[in-house]
Design brief:
Blueprint lengths: L1 E4 L1 E4 L2 E8 L15 H29 L2 H14 L2 H14 L3 H17 L4 H22 L13 E5 L4 H6 L5 E6 L7 H9 L3 E3 L4 H4 L5 E5 L4 E4 L3 H22 L15 E6 L5 H6 L5 E5 L13 H14 L4 E5 L27 H6 L1 H14 L4 E6 L5 H20 L9 E6 L2 H5 L1 H4 L5 E4 L1 H9 L17 H16 L3 E4 L9 H8 L3 E5 L3 H9 L3 H11 L5 H12 L1
Parallel strand pairs: 3-4, 4-5, 5-6, 9-10, 9-16, 10-11, 11-12, 12-13, 13-14, 14-15, 15-16
Antiparallel strand pairs: 1-8, 2-6, 3-7, 7-8
Helix pairs in contact: 1-2, 1-5, 2-5, 3-4, 4-5, 11-13, 13-14, 19-21, 21-22
């Protein structure tokens, strides 16, 4: 039995077979072939397997994700049956007497280069199709497995270097019982998605992909941040009991599902959920969410080969607003950039993408994309309690420019006879220190603040939250962070506005007492954290927590803050 330690990213216990989501080794050597007919048949067999595989993926995508996602694989099937590509490969095997791998790659590379140089978007897309199809055929020639998370059909634990947002969007909750990754932290997107999907996860293990093989039995302990590989029957039984105890505790929390979140001395705060898709509403309701504090709309744009239409977006926003039955829904406009890329936008590579052309900066320049989203949101606004939030705002001018575009689209829709809600609250994410410092001025113009601590912490501490070598600087309880949070809350309240928090800190059991004392109005977190947080807040006195908050703001270090909180709430 082997054991690896990581970061507990999503609570719970999972026991299942390992599924390695790791790119296969596609290296090969050039060989001279004597029996060219047999080699052509080997190539045709690989093509046939790739075709069958793609047909199955296309059908699955159509059923689970819709016809638009299936269209990608339909295009791949067309490439597989194109004689303009297939014939030159077979001719090269026969004429040059080379192995099929060489003939496939050389021919495909020629077409890819030719298409990429064309001044035509459609042809450039065909180059990407050829590259993907070639890779699939090559895996069959080499006898290795091409990973495809959307096709998992048995209970597994995903093992990966990392999981991208598009990877996690494809995971089937029915079969994916947990995952573990080499890199990442509690605020990485893979960890956030794990909590959203309500599956246990351990990230930042460094060596999971080296230690774990396909089919190994794995225990993911999302409570302690441990991964056990091929455990003894005794350890499996021990973990089954831990799982039962955790489920019993969850059942106790579940009794609070229809209760309001009220402190021991009668102060009400709102506990809302962070979501990525309309499907996440089930978890929000089951966990007693009092609203949606962050709807990450970028997932509408991911895992596809073109931008979502206005109608697609309208349908998604309407579904969430109707599903929340009048409870508040804060929708964040498109937040792409940093570690969230859209390949089809073909944005230039940047040295510091987290500090680069992303979020509102992209939207204000690519106004066609932004206006389409704003129109869809405005049209959906009549179906519920919509609040719109702009991400990555650094200056008042940016907020004013975004607001002006929203007003323009609103007037156009009204002129077209479309119904739009009379009052839509407009706010910003506070995730840049300059915005927090100027919060008193922003508060005069916005309707609300939502503090995005995941980025606010990394920008304040100048420490990339994905870089494990500087992870010790990612300190949510640092007095410097708490002072910025206080500035934002105080500025909002001075203007009669409300302040929320949608970063992972909002659901953190060490941070919650301090945030309650600082006067935070809305805590938005992964749906699975809501009931635990509600239980915690019901046992806290806001008056006592105000005194705690005053104390920790005078402290020097994170460790001092942690000790003070533990002492105050023991």
């Amino acid at each position: 039995m082997t054991f690896v330690k990581g970061i507990a990213a999503s609570n719970g216990i999972a026991i299942a077979k390992a599924y390695r989501l790791v790119e296969p080794d596609l290296t090969f050597a050039k060989k001279t072939i004597e029996d060219v007919d047999s080699e052509v048949k080997r190539f045709e067999a690989a093509m046939s397997k790739a075709k069958s595989e793609l047909e199955a993926i296309r059908d699955h995508a159509s059923n689970e994700l819709g016809p638009d996602k299936a269209a990608i694989f339909e295009a791949h099937l067309l490439v597989l049956s194109d004689p303009e590509l297939i014939s030159p490969i077979e001719d090269k095997i026969k004429t040059d007497k080379v192995n099929a791998e060489v003939a496939l790659k050389e021919t495909a590379d020629m077409f890819v280069t030719m298409f990429e140089q064309m001044d035509n978007e459609y042809m450039k897309e065909r180059a990407a199709d050829i590259r993907d199809v070639t890779k699939r055929v090559l895996t069959h020639l080499l006898g290795v497995q091409m990973v495809n998370p959307s096709m998992i059909s048995e209970e597994v634990i995903i093992v990966a270097e990392d999981l991208t947002p598009s990877d996690t969007a494809q995971l089937n909750r029915q079969f994916v019982k947990g995952f573990t990754t080499n890199i990442g932290g509690r605020t990485s997107h893979s960890a956030i998605m794990a909590r959203s999907m309500e599956i246990p996860a351990v990230v930042g293990t460094k060596t999971a992909t080296e230690e774990i093989n396909n089919g190994d039995i794995v225990i993911v302990d999302g409570l302690k941040g441990e991964v056990h590989i091929n455990p003894t029957p005794e350890l499996v039984e021990q973990y089954r009991k831990i799982h039962e105890e955790y489920e019993t505790q969850k059942a106790e929390w579940a009794k609070l599902v229809n209760e309001k979140t009220v402190s021991a001395d009668g102060h009400h705060v709102e506990l809302a959920a962070n979501i990525g898709t309309p499907k996440d509403l089930k978890g929000v309701k089951e966990n007693g969410g009092e609203g949606v504090g962050l709807y990450r709309t970028e997932f509408l744009y991911m895992g596809r080969d073109q931008l979502p239409s206005e109608e697609e977006q309208f349908d998604a926003y309407k579904a969430v607003l109707e599903g929340m039955e009048g409870k508040p829904v804060v929708v964040r406009t498109l937040d792409i950039g940093g570690d969230k890329e859209l390949p089809y936008l073909e944005l230039p590579k940047e040295l510091n993408p987290f500090l680069g052309f992303r979020a509102i900066r992209l939207c204000l320049e690519e106004q066609g994309i932004f206006r389409t989203q704003l129109r869809a949101l405005l049209r959906a606004s009549v179906y519920g309690n919509l609040k719109i939030m702009f991400p990555m705002i650094a200056t008042l001018d940016e907020f004013r420019a975004a607001k002006a575009l929203l007003e323009e689209e609103k007037q156009k829709l009204v002129a077209e006879g479309q119904k739009v809600a009379d009052k839509i609250e407009l706010g910003i994410m506070v995730e840049i220190p300059s915005t927090a410092v100027l919060a008193d001025q922003f508060a005069k113009e916005v309707d609300f603040f939502s503090i995005g601590t995941n980025d606010l912490i990394q920008y304040t501490m100048a420490a990339d939250r994905m870089n494990q070598r500087v992870s010790y600087l990612y300190q949510p309880y640092s007095p410097s962070i708490l002072r910025l949070v206080k500035m934002v809350i105080d500025a909002a309240h001075a203007e009669g506005k409300w302040a929320g928090m949608c970063g992972e800190m909002a659901g953190d059991e060490i941070a919650i007492p301090v945030l309650l004392g600082l006067g935070l109005d809305e805590f938005s977190m992964s749906a699975t954290s809501i009931l635990k947080a509600r239980s915690q807040i019901r046992n806290l006195s806001k008056t006592d927590m105000q005194k705690l908050a005053e104390t920790v703001l005078t402290m020097q270090t994170t460790d001092q803050v942690i000790e003070a909180v533990k002492f105050a709430v023991k």
